[in-house]
Specification:
- With about 525 residues, this protein is α/β, with parallel strands linked by helices.
- It folds into four domains: about 30-145, Beta-Lactamase (2-Layer Sandwich), CATH 3.30.450; about 150-225, Orthogonal Bundle (Helix Hairpins); about 230-310 and about 315-390, Heat Shock Protein 90 (2-Layer Sandwich), CATH 3.30.565; about 415-525, Response regulator (Rossmann fold, 3-Layer(aba) Sandwich).
- It is about 40% helix and about 25% strand.
- The chain is built from 16 helices and 17 strands.
- Strands 6, 7, 8, 9, 10, 11 and 12 form a seven-stranded mixed β-sheet that branches. The protein has a five-stranded antiparallel β-sheet with strand order 2-1-5-4-3.
- Helix 6 runs parallel beside helix 13 and helix 10 packs antiparallel against helix 12 (about 360-370).
- The longest helix has about 45 residues, at about 145-190.
- The chain is elongated and about 105 Å long.
- The N and C termini lie far apart (about 135 Å).
- Mean pLDDT is about 80; it is low at about 10-25 and about 400-405.
Length: about 525
């Protein structure tokens, strides 16, 4: 029986290599459309580099939008005309002879737009090879990162301001102790030289200089957000209107002042005295920048920032705000000046004409009030400062004047004085003792706790509001329910020691005058 004859099989068809079939099955028109639809800028150029770069053969719509050029303007031109830094072209020329697929040339820098402005961009150059592996073209993708760079610079700027603020706050705190001693002994010395007019004048000059130095430290504390705020509910329209005459006098013949106050403006919560300083400083800065036909506009308005509009971390949070804007048509500022504008001691004024603390104070008060401040400025156009404060629903706080007879400053009560600084402690203790008080002034809280056991006959405690000082005051008040407490430091009476009855509590802030401390102590003891 013959074997069954096998039919020959057809030869197997060769499978395409990975990617080749897919590429051949995609029409060229679709590939071109895909390039045009890319959200990133795409540029295709020849492989040969001239002195000014690679000759551009194709650009997509995103690249045109990024650079401001039309495609017809770019095709045929060398790509190097778009790069602001010649070093970018030198790197490309070194990379080209050794270019290999999968080994792109990456970088970032600035591109020059059609209007001569610049944008920050990141790019990647990849070689296109023929079947024999030879580079025939170069394809480049560009990503606009101008906004990302701006946010990074804003973050670095905020971190720098925060670091400078902590340093300034620490320096101001220590400096305040020295000023309290200088000013305090000036007051004591004035009583001893009252019969000598020449000596009294000299002591008065020292005291005046000390008070001016104290005002500078308050501005440093405001910048570092350690300055206590006596916050009340106020209306910015009222504050601006009440200060309009002062602002016009400050402006003098330098220019004219215009007020544009929105009717029905919501209230805000801030310290009216310190916010008055914000207004004055902004107007003074604008006045110093005015040229011929100078004009300053102070305006108020309501603004609502809706949720979803603050996509970036540096954006103002959503909510209802009240804006105060101070605009001028003066000399303006360049971008470099604006970077350092709110830093302490930075000033563009001649030496001796400014301390560089005015805008630092503005920044600190606005921040402490829960607000935000921005500036827009162009050279020879002018500047606009905008302050945003959260809108308050409460009614304006009415301030009722309190008329009380000046108390006698002498007494015989027992006062416990807690003060870390030796010079301040000795000065205050000496003055209280001279006025008849029995003073206990231990060198530390640990010594005070040991000396005042078990049941101390204390009428008044003068203590800094550190966590340790608050704990000590709480323990002493448990044993002496009628204890009066005079806090020294940067605290608001409404938030300091809430367990002490308001009439038995007061706060004074360094650098304090001795007369201020004596009045506060006597007022508490007489309450």
């Amino acid at each position: 029986m013959s074997a069954k004859r096998q039919r020959p099989r057809p030869p197997a068809r060769a499978r395409p290599r990975s990617g080749d079939g897919a590429a051949k099955s995609v029409p060229a028109t679709l590939l071109a459309a895909a390039l045009r639809a890319q959200s990133e800028g795409v540029l295709i150029a020849g492989r040969r580099a001239t002195e000014r770069g690679l000759r551009i053969l194709f650009v997509n719509a995103s690249f045109c939008a990024m650079t401001g050029h039309a495609a017809a303007e770019l095709v045929g031109r060398p790509h190097g005309v778009l790069h602001a830094d010649p070093a970018d072209l030198r790197r490309l020329k070194r990379w080209l002879p050794h270019a290999r697929p999968g080994e792109p040339l990456t970088g970032d820098g600035f591109l020059i737009r059609s209007d001569r402005s610049t944008i920050s961009a990141a790019w990647s150059f990849d070689p296109l090879c023929n079947p024999r592996g030879r580079v025939t073209h170069v394809v480049a993708t560009y990503r606009d990162q101008t906004e990302k760079r701006r946010l990074q610079e804003a973050l670095v700027h905020a971190q720098r301001l925060d670091a400078v603020g902590r340093l300034a706050g620490g320096v101001a705190h220590d400096f305040n102790n020295l000023l309290s001693v200088i000013n305090g002994y000036c007051e004591m010395l004035a009583a001893h030289v009252a019969a000598n007019p020449q000596a009294l004048r000299e002591v008065a000059e020292i005291h005046n200089a000390g008070r001016k130095a104290a005002a500078l430290t308050q501005q440093l504390l405001a910048f570092s957000r350690r300055q206590p705020l006596n916050a009340r509910t106020i209306n910015l329209n009222t504050l601006v209107a009440d200060n309009a005459d002062i602002l016009r006098r400050l402006l003098g013949t330098a220019g004219r002042l215009e007020l544009q106050l929105q009717e029905g403006l919501a209230n805000v919560r801030t310290d009216p005295a310190q916010f008055q300083q914000v207004l004055l400083n902004l107007v003074l800065n604008a006045r110093d920048a005015l040229r011929d036909d100078g004009r300053i506009v102070v305006s108020t308005a309501s603004r609502e920032i809706k949720a979803g509009l603050n996509r970036r971390g540096t954006d103002t949070p959503p909510g209802r705000y009240v804006t105060l804007t101070v605009s001028d048509n003066g000399t303006g500022m360049d971008a470099e000046t604006q970077k350092h504008l709110f830093e302490p001691f930075f000033t563009t004024k001649p030496e001796g004409k400014g301390t560089g603390l005015g805008l630092a104070l503005v920044y600190g008060v606005v921040q402490q009030s829960g607000g935000y401040i921005t500036v827009k400025s162009s050279v020879l156009v002018g500047s606009t400062f905008e302050v945003l404060l959260p809108a308050a629903t409460a009614a304006v706080d009415e301030v009722r004047p309190v008329v009380a007879p000046l108390p006698s400053l002498r007494g015989n009560e027992t006062v416990v004085l807690i003060e870390d600084d030796d010079l301040v402690r000795k000065m205050v203790a000496g003055m209280l003792t001279a006025d008849g008080y029995r003073v206990v002034a231990p060198e530390s809280l640990a010594v005070a706790a040991a000396e005042l056991e078990p049941s101390p006959p204390v009428d008044l405690l003068i203590v800094p509001l550190t966590p340790e000082g608050e704990k000590f005051a709480r323990g002493l008040q448990v044993r002496r329910p009628n204890l009066r407490v005079l806090c020294t430091g940067s605290h608001d009476e409404r938030t300091a020691l809430p367990w002490v009855e308001p009439q038995r509590l007061a706060c004074i802030h360094k650098p304090f005058a001795l007369s201020e401390l004596l009045r506060a102590a006597r007022k508490l003891l007489d309450a």
